[in-house]
Request: fold
Amino acid sequence: MFQSDRYLPRAGCLVIFCASGVLSALAATSAVAATTGAPESLEEIIVTATLRARPATDLTASAVVLDAATLRDAGQQHLADVLGLIPNLNFAGGSSRPRYFQVRGIGELEQYEGAPNPSVGFLIDGMDFSGIGMAATLFDVHQVEVLRGPQGARYGANALGGLINITSTAPAATSQASVSATLGSDHTQGAGGVVNLAWPAADSTFRLGVQRQRSDGFRHNAFLGRSDTNGRDELTTRARWRWQPAADATFDLTLLHVELDNRYDAFAIDNTRTTLSDHPGQDAQHATGLAATWQAPGPGTTRWSLTGAYVDSASVHAYDGDWGNAASWAPYTYDYLYHADRGRQTATAEARLESASSGRLSWLVGVWHQQLREQITESSRGTYADPAYPEVFTSDSAGASRYHAATTAFFGETELQLAPTWQASLGLRYEHRDTRFSTAQTDLAPRDSQVGGHFTLSHTLAKHGLTWLSATRGFKAGGINPSPQLPTRLREFGEETVSGLELGARQNWSEGRWQAELVLFDLHRQHLQVRTSEQLVIGDPNTFVFYTDNAARGRHRGAEASLRWRPSATLDTGVSVGWLRATLNGIVRDGVTLPARDAPHAPHWQFATHVAWHGVQGWFARLDLTGMDAFYFGNLPEPYRSQAYALTHLRAGWEGQHLSVDLYVRNALNRRYTTRGFAFGNEPPDFPEKSYVQVGDPREGGLNLQWRF
Reply:
């Protein structure tokens, strides 16, 4: 069926048997050494991002789930705070908050890579925020799930590399309320409140949460004498209503409204946190989303699930193109500005029918449809003058584009119990997309159809363990580069496919106090879509354009491993690591095929380790250490890389029945690290090519208070 099917037969079964034996032996050894008594088992976590919700321990895929406790203890305000806990997940900066992600080295680097056609899916309560994930604030969030690897059956073309799924806190069965406040360095201040109401007479529960947080953004503009030119001002409103007229029927309605009025002044000519721009930029997003889900019994023992979601997002991205001012460039006149307004509306509907999960055979079928519209208006202007020459060079350009994509998918999955300890699963998805892209000069209407899915063979171990071997095929539709600056030859790019193998093993022992997992993967990409760039006019930084093109192939190999141990009722420790070798081949620049090299934003290793303590008197503390290897900022021939780094985060406090208070320090050792880099000529008069980087946030600390009543 798939290209990787040739790997499946006997060799795969042998590897599964070997992995099963190793884990069984380890479990037996641990069982002998385990002590009886106080330590509590780790709580069961349910993964909802898969086609069927299931316990994380039963998942036959590489996934990381951050529960509410982890988000509270290790996070602060935004998803950006906890991304380091997930090895083989990276993000590209160039924005005030992360919204461009790479899973196992697959993913976009910025908004200029084409019309909405993301490689990493991004869902918030079922609402599609793929490519516009700035809205991922953590206030009143219940769980963050990251599925690593192609999710062809689950989310099709929007999840070639993986899927990020965020779920807010559901309404509770009892009425309750809380208020919270934050004070921190760099003028960080925030306040929020949650109200949960139970209405048994109407079979309903309701939850409303509102929070606003502001900070200076950890930069200083020396030219303007201000420290707020990179500031953040973020408002989050979440509302959820759950109606349960019967024990087996539930209706959920979710509303999300975010206003991220963030400024953007992140790049400096000398690659520090002290900027010189005379026209600081903006990186803002206002988004409103609504999602509804109805689950009820179907014919016989089946169940219906109907969902619908709508997201309306408006964003602004603007920056000072020269990163300087008149004094910094004297005696030359050098002044450039860029501004883009982007609006996106996404409507999604899905219907699925699934059988009961018990029995030898279970199945699920569904249909999914999405309408996506996006409008972009861009403008750039600039002036350059050299006192040695009489000419004054000016560039003023503006353009607008409109994009519409209608996508329909049919999907299904079946699971078969082959023997008491052996299971097989087959998932397929057919997807068809019609698109239209138009500007004042261009009108294109490409269409394509793709098929993806997975075949998985798994073996259940006697000591609460599981091994699996999975063959996957993911796909990504072709697309259009929307920037009006691009010449016609760079407008369209073709579809991409990925096929691969994943071998995994997971083991729990000592009543769940120990958890271990190891996943090996090998992905083969064909006609991969890669980010590249050209500076169309030397000396004009606004003509440094990004676009997507197709390369011949790529191979992404690696592993993910984790170990978690709860030695007592008060102590929790864990470590997770990721290894990655993501190689791209066949990239063409100026008619020349470049040699193979690592994919951008694909570090060879990443790690996260933590120690968390919760005392019996309410005191608690947590230490997190995360880090990653160096990575390339862009594709060949760009030689520039980041530097390897490790960050230390601390939190400690006290939690009582009604009051909790904690102190936090992020980047406690004040390490310097970079989240994004570009290479181009930006300094007159010779404009030598140099690397410019966005430096990550420095050490920050603060105080959180919460009162529950």
Q: What stands out?
A: The chain has one domain: 3-708. The two ends are 57 Å apart (CA to CA). The longest helix spans residues 10-33. The first strand starts at residue 46 and ends at 47.
